[in-house]
Design a protein that fits this description.
By secondary structure, the protein is an alpha+beta fold. It has a single domain, classed as oxygen-dependent coproporphyrinogen oxidase, CATH 3.40.1500.10. Helices cover 42% and strands 27% of the residues. The strands form two sheets. A seven-stranded antiparallel sheet has the order 1-2-3-4-5-6-9. Strands 7-8 form a two-stranded antiparallel ribbon. Helix 1 runs parallel beside helix 5 and helix 3 runs antiparallel to helix 5. The termini are far apart.
Length: 275
């Protein structure tokens, strides 16, 4: 399969997933509140791609949710080349992906994050994953979440779950706090063994995230919460903010490649607190 076909297939999939996720989110809000959609270009003076980010705020279910699609290309700035696989001697790149962050009104429903991407330099690879960040412990939810992830991973490779769970636990960790961001999930990068198999796995990750967020929200949507629960959520969001601004690889990549600032920072919660 030639590279242009791969780019088209992956980009089309990420875009269709954006549409599908947004339809589910609007149904939870009973179509009473709309996404604010913004199309953007990486470079207004020449064609280097762009994308669309959609943000919904102040809903009955979602405090804030962002669903971002991008397809960008061009050349890495010289100072970043050595940090990107396959770009050391040739700065040209192409990248497409989708990222989703959900901050919920009900503090008993965890914040949820998902992204998948396909990047081409002189090499090409997939990356991505999903994780959830509750502000109140729920061991049953944690067990069920990881059970679904393991079942999905095992369909592709029996080693995937343990490998990608470990990577997620190590990645979503705040060293200055000496604590994890949430209860983990899966995280993978530089996945480039076989395009067809890898793309099949990446599609399955997207479908599974859709199943998971629907299931979690439907289960907890009517649960009563207290002011203390909400305050705990605000504190946990502070930790979320710290991670995304200090350590998140996707945030750094987006800023390095001239991505849209509002789209990149859509992951930040609408309200957070620190003690």
């Amino acid at each position: 399969m030639d590279l242009q076909t791969k780019k088209k297939l992956t980009s089309n999939w990420f875009k269709s997933l954006q549409n599908s996720f947004c339809e589910d989110i609007k149904k939870f809000e009973k179509n009473k509140i709309k996404f604010k959609s913004t199309n953007w270009k990486k470079n207004i003076n020449k064609d280097e791609g762009g994308g669309e980010y959609r943000i919904l705020k102040g809903g009955k279910i979602f405090d804030k949710v962002g669903v971002n699609f991008s397809e960008v290309y061009g050349r890495f700035p010289k100072q970043f080349q050595k940090n990107i696989l396959g770009a050391e001697k040739n700065p040209k790149f192409w990248a497409s992906g989708i990222s989703v962050v959900m901050h919920m009104k009900n503090p008993l429903i965890p914040a949820m994050h998902f992204n998948t991407r396909y990047i081409c330099t002189t090499q090409e690879w997939f990356g991505g994953g999903m994780d959830i960040t509750p502000s109140k412990k729920d061991l049953i939810e944690k067990r069920e979440f990881h059970k679904i992830l393991k079942k999905m991973c095992d369909k592709h490779d029996k080693n995937y779950y343990d490998r990608y769970k470990k990577w997620c636990d190590e990645y979503f960790y705040l060293p200055h706090r000496k604590e994890p961001r949430g209860i983990g999930g899966i995280f993978f990068d530089y996945k480039k063994n076989n395009f067809e198999n890898d793309f099949k796995f990446v599609r399955d990750v997207g479908i599974t995230f859709q199943l998971i967020f629907n299931k979690i929200i439907e289960k907890k949507i009517k649960r009563k919460w207290s002011i203390k629960d909400k305050e705990n959520q605000y504190i946990k969001r502070g930790r979320y903010t710290e991670f995304n601004l200090l350590y998140d690889r996707g945030t750094k990549f987006g800023l390095q490649t001239g991505g849209n600032i509002e789209g990149i920072l859509m992951s930040l919660p609408p309200t957070a607190k620190w003690k």
